[in-house]
Each structure stands twice: as C-alpha cells, then as structure tokens.
Write a structure and sequence with these properties.
8-stranded mixed β-sheet; 4-stranded antiparallel β-sheet; 3 helices; elongated
Amino acid sequence: MKRIVFTLGLLFAMQAMLFAQLTDQETVIFNAHLLKTFNLNVVNGATQDITFTTAADYNNGVIEGAGINTGTTDITVEATGNWNLQISAPDFTPYAGPNGAGTGTIPIDNLGVWLVATGAHQFGTEISCSYVSLATALGMDNANQLLIGLLTENAGDVSDNAFTMHWQMGQAVACPLMNQLTMFDQLSSGVFGPGDFTTTATLTLTEIP
C-alpha cells in the first residue's frame, strides 16, 4: 500500500512539473507620429460664369442664379490646428472669349463675396467673419483680406469646417463694402468696354501657432 501511495504521489508531482511550464516575455514598442495636416478643399463652384445682359444688370448688379452661374462655391477645411482664411484676386482682364475680348480692366472690388458656415463651427462662436449677408459682402482686393478668422478653436474635419461662399458683382447699391460706382457708370466713363474678362481668386489657408 505504501508503495502504491508513493507511486501515485510521484506521478502527481511529475504531472505538476509538466504543467508548470516556463514563460518568457518580450515587448513591442509603438511610436505614433501625428503630423499636422491643413487641407483647403473647393468642393464645387470652382468656375463661375458672370453675365450682364440688361440695363438692370449694369445698374443693379448680378447675384447667384440671376446673372451668376452658379453663384456659390462650397469649401471645406481639414486642419489639425487653428487656422485663418484669406482671399485675394487681381483685376479682371480681357480675354478672347465667345463675345470677344473686352477693353480696359474691371476693378476687382466690383466682385463681392459673403459666407454661410454650414459645419459645426459657426461664426461668432469658434470662428469670425464680417461678411455674412449680401449687405455686408466683401469687395475683393488685389491684396489678401481676412475672410475667416479665429475666435476660440477651429481645428477639425469637414463636418466642423464647411462654408458656402455667395458671389455677386456690380452691387454698388446693395453692398457698401464694394465698388460704389455702378457697372454702367464705369463702362460709360471708359474704365472698361463690353466683351469677355477673366480673373482668378486665390484662397489662402494659414496655420495659427
């Protein structure tokens, strides 16, 4: 009996040694590199066609859907930090379009823009903009002008930073920040003549440290 008990005890001890396996450990290090990104995207409305056809157009100006096709530009900003947005454009110059090249140059402040924030970041909260209606439209300039500024924090993706730019031209009566001479007044004084003109507006996104 003693031999049987001893044998069983030895067996149990050997099994315990077999199941008491040795272990070892190594480590894997992860270094996450979160680089800055600043993307300005023109979603639609990158080309605008502006047409003056009637005396009312020359006297009162044209807006989206009534002389400007399409009259709006949608933009988004993807930024890992705070930012502001500026805009500039040279004067309109003649080009050989379907109606023939115009004469002279059209001062760029005849072109105006105002904005609507369509994302989570809103004017007066995270961001600032002084041009939020037709009456407060910004007259464009050859030099950079601040379009959207920073109030608190505006880092975010396209759901945070989305905007619609509304364009108008020749709105001397409605927009005090634009050229205060009508297109008719400027045309009759020889500043420019009928025909086709072109310009390119540049939007500049800048990181705020």
